[in-house]
Amino acid sequence: MAELGKGVSAGKLASNMQKKLTRAQEKVLQKLGKADETKDEQFEQCVQNFNKQLTEGSKLQKDLRTYLTSVKTMQEASKKLTECLQEIYEPDWPGREDANKIVENSDLLWTDYHQKLVDQALLTMDTYLGQFPDIKSRIAKRGRKLVDYDSARHHYESLQNAKKKDEAKIAKPVSLLEKAAPQWCQGKLQAHLVAQTNLLRNQAEEELLKTQKVFEEMNADLQEELPSLWNSRVGFYVNTFQSIAVLEENFHKEMGKINQNLNDVMVNLEKQHGSPASNAFPIKAQPRKKTNLFSRLRIKKSSEGSSVKANKSPSPPTDGPPLASHETKTVNHEGEAAPATLGETPAAAIPKSPSQPADPAPLSTEAPESEAAAAGEKSKTDTAGSESTVAAAQSSLPAVVVETFPATVNGTVESSTPTNRADMPPQFLYKVTAQHDYAATDSDELNLKSGDVVLVVHFDNPEEQDEGWLMGVKESDWLQHKEFDQCRGVFPENFTEKVL
User: Fold this and answer.
1) CATH fold for the domain made of 428-498
2) Could you tell me which CATH class the domain 36-274 is placed in?
3) Which of 461, 497, 490 is nearest to 473 (CA)?
4) Residues 6 or more apart from 219 whose CB is under 8 A from it?
5) Are 304 and 391 in contact (CB under 8 A)?
6) 185-236 per-position pLDDT tens digit
7) What is the largest CA-CA distance in the chain?
8) DSSP, res 220
9) CB neighbours (10 Å) of residue 14?
């Protein structure tokens, strides 16, 4: 039994080898043009469509797997992000439970979306492409059977065409046998040769019919399946992309709701964060390194005034008319001219003493040197007294602006000095809007409410400005009272935003 099995295997192997040799020989003859090849243009077109469909389907399957991988990666990234939110969200913050629920729902939604894509798109794609390998192998087998059919057809045709040659070959050995064999043997030998020729012809015809039948059956099945498969691609693509579109649409809708809930939680947290009533998350101003600004100014001015009074020497009475070239006025914070009082006369308005003529001339040679020295000492004393008077006036009235109006000649102004806008406080810079409430902690600070507009101005002395603090007056107070000194104050810069 083992030998029989070996013999059958060996016989089958030899038969397969013979078929391969025959097919190879037939293909070589067809390529050389010595044997014709059966052509079917309609089937060839179906094969081209099949290959194109297989290429498109394989690419779609690859891109779909890439998309699913990306969804999985995005799920992991979203999970890490939401887990980070859970870690940083402190227990005493409002909405912590809502935030935890949002994190869980987000991860579940990503998992559900990925699984539905696998079930409704990827598995369908795999099933669709699963039929291509079998059809592809059948197309290849049909090609081999076509070669077998062509080979059998060519062999049968060659036997048919060589009938006369075979008869001549048969007759020649008979003539030779006539000389060497008895008469009675010649008839049997001829009959044997004719029977052998007929047998070969019959075998070739049977092989032709057999190969033709196998080929035509496979060809008929493929001729029916390939066009149907080609037409099915449209419905498959429609169903696949519809499923993906619907799943993605539903996913984004649900994810949009989750994101909206998360936004609501963040808005609530922001409100709690910026609410001064809760004081849960206070915004702190930069600490001031100096004490009350206005008290410092008052102390400084009073000390300057006292020192001036202590060192002040009596000034002689002034004689002569006032200067005609300029006119001096003291202007209060409302822009109106204030009457000059004792100790408020500016240095520019003090007329020169008789010892200092308006038009200096060379000293007479007859004047003694002692008189000249006395005149110089008196001029110094008058000048010092004028400066002390000005300093005392500044210490008594804070932030008093002194403007010098140029003289006019025939109604024409000779010179002018730029002044601040009438609707803005002195030294106005720009506007800011309060973004958070601020409660003043010192008498020189402003109380701010969210939305207040503040007019920022220069510090009288830049050295008095603390880092992170600005000087200004609230626009509402300025428009209502126009009292700059009484309304101005400092405020933290980080509580406001500059108005463009």
Assistant:
1) SH3 type barrels. (2.30.30)
2) mainly alpha
3) 490
4) 40, 43, 142, 146
5) yes
6) 555 656 666 666 677 777 888 888 888 898 889 899 999 999 999 999 999 9
7) 193
8) H
9) 10
